[in-house]
Amino acid sequence: MQPYAAWAIDWARHESGNMSAAVSLQKRLVVGLTMGITLLWLVATLVTGRLVQRELDEAFDSALQETAQRLLPLAILEIFNREETIAPQRIAPLNAQQAHFSYLVRDAGGKILLQSINATPDIFTARPKEGFTTTATHRLYSASALRTTIFIDIAEPLHYRRAAIWDAIIALLQPLLLLIPLSLLGVWLLVHLSLRSVRSYRDAIEERGAGDLSPIEAGQLPAEISPLADAVNHLMERLRCALDAERSFTANSAHELRTPLAAALAQIQRLHREAPEGPLQARITQIEASLRDLSRLSEKLMQLAKAEGGGLLSETPQDLAALLEFIVQDLRRSATAAIQLTLPAGAPVLATIDPDAFAILLRNLIENGLKHGTPEAAIEISLSSAALLTVINAGPVVPVPMLARLTGRFTRGDSGADGSGLGLAIAKTIASGVGATLTLTSPATGRHDGFEACVQFKIDTRKRIKAEFST
Question: Which residue among 111, 154, 194, 405 is the one 20 to 30 A from 3 at the CA level?
Fold first, then answer.
């Protein structure tokens, strides 16, 4: 069972993590707004292209009509002033712009009287017809003179118009190459500044420990996210009240259980001294042993309740080396075997674990080694600068299937020693509650026998760097 405090902080981190990692709101806004601006620009370009095409068609048609009206009088003079010939006369263009056009001068019957040098009769209609006409390849205009006896048909290739329209569209699209990166930068800056309070709120959730249940400062959050911050603070408040009530219940229960058990055990011990020798003494001895087992079991259950109920993390980092040295010195007074302690030299090993929770975890690991290890062999305890706690005891090798079950509740090994089967379960629960990892190994590292329990704590690097700098 994960502690409530850790669960609440993990939930809040999960909610804030969804915003920055899984589905980044900033990324979605930047990409979405930039794509929207680009799409609107493309639509505007298409609409503008249609308008430009209409205006260009009108301009080209006007130029085509004006050219025909200017060429027709000159063509009539040329026809009437020339000598009679059978073949129609071909006229060279006066300039390069006029070379875009080709024209025919015909009579009402369709006979060609005059034509430009680049004119091809196939692109014109069979008989002259006044006004504009569009074919697959050309735009045609026909005008008449001398009471519709002489017609001029002038043709312009359509690819000139298409080329002009594409030039206009490309000119409209070229700014888009600069608009896209500028839009990305501008939208990113705007969104980045707008979400500054949201990022600050996210960082406040990520940086605090699971044992810190104080309200989170919301700041100037957007109206859409402010209710979420209020809901998180409300949850923290309810959780703090629940944990306080649970701690109070645990303390009262421990006191109420220990007192009757101690009184009953004292009465049994007194009865043991007063009872005569015989079967009654053996029965009293059994009752005394049962009461002692029950007392130890109640103590383990209280430890398990504390491990599962929360309060495992401290709001300030603790020096594991100092705590370890103090606890080991206390245990050496009642230990049945020697305890060897190895501590790291140099800077303190800081981790955000409650001192009482660390003491419970360490005592259970050492008691496990004392109960199930070789009696005459010493218990080896070490702590590295990387916050790796190791407890090693000599003894037979524990099979791999049994290792996987030892951290379960009421699970005992094959050593035959007395115990409740809760020691390693409590150690694992505390380790999980503080974000540490408990690893069991048999045989011990570098040996052919023995049992090794390793707990890897998370170092508070920020606090450690600050401590090293101050020293």
Answer: 405
